[in-house]
């Protein structure tokens, strides 16, 4: 199939940019020193490509992602890197030994939820500066003891320094070091082999974790690329020009139901500048000297990859004008 034959809007993955991103990351974080975060792409087909590249341990953000990865035979070492109080869908998977599942805990309630669901392994999630999940580092040892008293294996700690991913270059390394000092302090109390953290924005400065949790690097988006410029934009939306005004603008069928807009407007490739996006439409000012007609196909780069992908059912993997594979976005929803 040719790209031109696709119904629009459609999501495209440039296979060369994707492969280059995988190679770049694997050079610094080979094998299981990288624990790719499935939340960024929600596709077992894409995850399988990473497993083939040696990354056989994964992070997930939802129970559905964990269960879907296990069902796809990608359950060698799955970390639910998020707090969850109802883990019951995972019970049969653990009981049948179909996957190794570790869950993050940051409270007595989440420890209890893990024990109740028959989960065997946990990581203590530590607050390393991002006001989100994670216990106080001073509480980590107590939580680990509690988990062990409930029969859980404590594999170590995790701490996500999400507040530093977009820190300007000059100060990022120093702030990540300070943030990771909190994680190491907690690790000293908790024990275990695993110190998990980091992301695409800190892939080159975080020297303290035993495994990096990056996910966005595979596909990237326009907002993130400034903070990790070694990775390339591999994800595009393909739209069709459905209307053209003599006053200088054109309209694509890629509206905001096609893009996450929380990181700003998408970027129109080579045809003009995005003016605004409404439910079913993207209006762009046609660049001078550009011949844009009704029916033309135009590529658009999203500003935030994770919630853009989760609005689509499939990713079309393209090599130039050829669609070479289709990856279902099978881990959507909860
Ligand atoms: C717990 C956790 N770890 C790691 C990441 C890293 O993701 P990214 O590759 O987008 O920086 C995220 C992203 O939100 C996250 O929530």
Short structural summary:
By secondary structure, this protein is of the alpha/beta class. The mean pLDDT is 97.
How does this model look, in words?
The longest helix has 22 residues, at 169-190. α6 (140-149) packs across α7. α7 links the parallel β6 and β7 (194-197). This protein has 8 helices and 16 strands. It has 334 residues and is α/β, with parallel strands linked by helices. It has helices spanning 15-28, 44-52, 63-71, 91-95, 108-116, 140-149, 169-190, 305-309, and strands at residues 10-14, 57-60, 77-80, 101-105, 121-125, 153-159, 194-197, 211-212, 235-244, 249-252, 267-268, 272-278, 281-286, 297-301, 314-319, 322-328. The mean pLDDT is 97. The protein is elongated. The chain starts with 9 loop residues before the first strand and ends in a 6-residue tail after the last strand. The strands form 2 sheets. Strands 1, 9, 10, 11, 12, 13, 14, 15 and 16 form a 9-stranded mixed β-sheet that branches. A 7-stranded parallel β-sheet has the order 2-3-4-5-6-7-8, with helices on one face. The chain has 2 domains: 3-11 and 231-328, Beta Barrel (Lyase, Ornithine Decarboxylase, Chain A, domain 1), CATH 2.40.37.20; 30-213, Alanine racemase (TIM Barrel). Bound molecules: pyridoxal-5'-phosphate.
């Amino acid at each position: 199939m040719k790209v031109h034959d696709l119904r629009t809007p459609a999501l495209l993955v440039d296979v060369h940019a994707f492969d280059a991103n995988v190679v770049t990351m694997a050079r610094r974080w080979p094998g299981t020193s990288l624990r790719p975060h499935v939340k960024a792409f929600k596709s077992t087909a894409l995850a399988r490509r990473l497993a083939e590249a040696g990354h056989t341990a994964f992070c997930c953000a939802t129970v559905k992602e964990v269960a879907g990865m296990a069902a796809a035979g990608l359950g060698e070492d799955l970390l639910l890197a998020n707090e969850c109080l109802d883990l019951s869908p995972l019970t049969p998977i653990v009981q049948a030994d179909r996957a190794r599942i570790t869950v993050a805990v940051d409270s007595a309630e989440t420890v209890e939820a893990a024990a109740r669901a028959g989960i065997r392994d946990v990581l203590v999630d530590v607050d390393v500066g991002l006001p989100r999940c994670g216990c106080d580092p001073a509480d980590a040892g107590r939580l680990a003891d509690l988990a062990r008293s409930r029969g859980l294996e404590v594999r170590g700690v995790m701490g996500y320094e999400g507040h530093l991913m977009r820190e300007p270059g000059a100060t990022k390394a120093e702030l990540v070091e300070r943030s990771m000092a909190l994680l190491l302090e907690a690790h000293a109390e908790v024990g275990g082999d695993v110190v998990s953290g980091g992301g695409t924005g800190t892939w080159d400065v975080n020297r303290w974790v035993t495994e990096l949790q990056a996910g966005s690097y595979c596909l990237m988006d326009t907002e993130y690329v400034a903070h990790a410029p070694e990775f390339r934009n591999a994800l595009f939306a393909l739209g069709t020009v459905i209307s053209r005004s003599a006053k200088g603008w054109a309209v694509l069928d890629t509206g905001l139901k096609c893009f996450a807009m929380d990181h700003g407007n998408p970027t129109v490739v080579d045809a003009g500048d995005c003016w605004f996006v409404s439910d079913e439409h993207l209006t762009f000012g046609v660049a001078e000297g550009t011949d844009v007609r009704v029916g033309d196909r135009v590529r658009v780069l999203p500003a935030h990859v994770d919630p853009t992908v989760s609005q689509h059912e499939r990713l079309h993997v393209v090599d130039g004008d050829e669609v070479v594979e289709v990856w279902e976005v099978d881990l959507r929803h909860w």
